[in-house]
Design goal:
β15, α14 and β16 form a beta-alpha-beta unit. The longest helix is centred in the first third of the chain and has 25 residues. The chain is α/β, with parallel strands linked by helices and 455 residues long. The model has no long low-confidence stretch (mean pLDDT 98).
């Protein structure tokens, strides 16, 4: 039987080994989920909502335990893990309260005596989720999907099996019927068969762009609806009239959230020429002040990278950028000692053709790019294959909004850190994927938008 071992990235030590599910067990679990859906789809919103609020209460009650597990399995600093559990509870409560109103039938005036659109659940939704936010990525799919009357099966990242199993336990403990949410503890080699299973109706994936393309291809061949939230290389534009101290604080915070391992971290700091010297001095000081260390320690800001291979890949991107002319002002070297650590790093002189300009750097590495003016900054921001998030900093709010509307991204923020919010749709364009999660648009991704026409 195949095995799955979780490894503590702060020490390199194995935590626990799990038996992977066989293909037969995976198929049986999907069958069970479908059987559960037959009853779940008919449950009233008030019952679904009551159970979802129980899940929220459990998340809050067990937040310290959950934070510790995330720290051990993928290196997330404790305080960030607690915040993640709290955010998952918020999403559960939001959809418990709002799903019925969002999914209420919509009447339309036609030649019929009565015509309307109903929003009905599809069935089994397969979620293929990453390790970087091992709770949030799952709950932001599961809360709306289950409240809409669907059921969920989760193929989580192989380095966070403990988190994956604990999520299933939380739904079970909250009182959700057996089979309504299942964790499929299996490797990526079984994903194609999961997608092709006749009872899987839709697929959602958060992950890398190559993974998204593979899943989109497999799901397309099987005619399965997909939502893909993929990579990003988010630009943060700092204009000459920005509140510089505020911009620096937000840029540094965003770049280092989750030790730099987020699709919507600030990755490219695009600064207009008059501010470059002062911005650079301040951003170096801000990022240098953040403490790297044991994710279980209370004061840690930056934990290890989630896996050693990912740390080494990040370092190779930095080295290649430097070889092509980028200048490291901070960090840029693998520290001695145990663990998959990588320091806060700032590169200047970043130009097209360098990984730091063209690729997503999934770790605590920021690129400072000089723009001549606002128009040039927008050009540089959009000069990427990605289109997930973007931000602009200026004291002129009308100007900020105008620039935000020109940025090619699914989420644009003015004078604020790009982040997901249960009340707003979240997702990207171009190679950052398609479809939306969260908000009213997210819950409607996995429903049958059914026209009912009565003569």
């Amino acid at each position: 039987m195949a095995k799955m071992t979780s490894v503590n990235p702060a020490t390199g030590e194995a935590i626990k080994t799990y038996d992977e599910m066989t293909p037969g067990q995976v198929s049986a679990a999907i069958d069970q989920a479908h059987e559960a859906w037959k009853a779940w789809r008919t449950e009233p919103f008030v019952k679904r909502g009551a159970l979802m609020k129980q899940a929220a209460a459990i998340l809050r009650r067990r937040k310290d335990e959950l934070a510790k597990l995330m720290a051990i399995e993928m290196g997330k600093p404790l305080k960030q893990g607690v915040a993640e559990a709290e955010k998952c509870a918020w999403a559960c409560e939001y959809y418990a309260d709002e799903a019925e109103a969002i999914l209420a039938p919509e009447a339309f005036k036609t030649d019929a005596a009565k015509s309307y659109v109903a929003f009905e659940p599809l069935g089994v939704v397969l979620a293929i989720m990453p390790w970087n936010f091992p709770l949030w990525q799952v709950f932001r799919f599961a809360a709306p999907a289950l409240m809409a009357g669907n059921v969920g099966v989760l193929k989580h990242a192989s380095n966070v099996p403990g988190c994956a199993l604990l999520i299933e336990e939380i739904f079970s403990q909250a009182g959700f019927p057996q089979g309504t949410f299942r964790t499929l503890l299996a490797g990526s080699g079984q994903v194609k068969a999961m997608i092709e299973h006749s009872l899987v109706r839709a697929v959602t994936l958060t992950g890398s762009t190559p993974a998204g393309k593979a899943v989109a291809s497999q799901a397309g061949a099987a005619l399965k609806k997909t939502v893909l939230e993929l990579g990003g290389s988010d630009p943060y534009i700092v204009l000459e009239d920005a509140d510089l101290d505020h911009a620096v604080q937000v840029c540094a915070t965003s770049r280092l959230i989750n030790s730099g391992q987020s699709c919507v971290n600030a990755k490219r700091f695009i600064v207009v020429e008059p501010l470059v010297a002062s911005f650079t001095e301040k951003i170096v000081a801000a990022m240098k002040s953040k403490k790297m260390g044991d994710p279980l320690a209370e004061g840690t800001d930056i934990g290890p990278q989630a896996r050693f291979d990912l740390r080494d890949e990040l370092h190779a991107q930095v080295r290649e950028s430097v070889r092509k002319g980028a200048v490291p002002l901070l960090g840029g070297e693998i520290p001695p000692g145990a663990g998959a650590f990588y320091p806060a790093t700032i590169l200047t002189g970043v130009k097209p053709g360098m990984p730091a300009y063209d690729q997503e750097l999934f770790g605590p590495v920021a690129a400072v790019i000089v723009a001549t003016d606002e128009q040039d900054a927008v050009r540089i921001a959009n000069d990427t294959v990605f289109g997930l998030g973007a931000a602009v900093f200026t004291r002129d709010i009308a100007r900020g909004e105008r620039v935000a509307r020109q940025l090619e991204a699914g989420c644009t923020f003015v004078n604020a850190l790009v982040a997901s919010d249960p009340r707003l749709p979240f997702g990207g364009i171009k190679e950052s994927g398609y479809g939306r999660e969260l908000g009213t648009y997210g819950i409607k991704e996995f429903v049958n938008t059914k026209t009912v026409y009565i003569k």
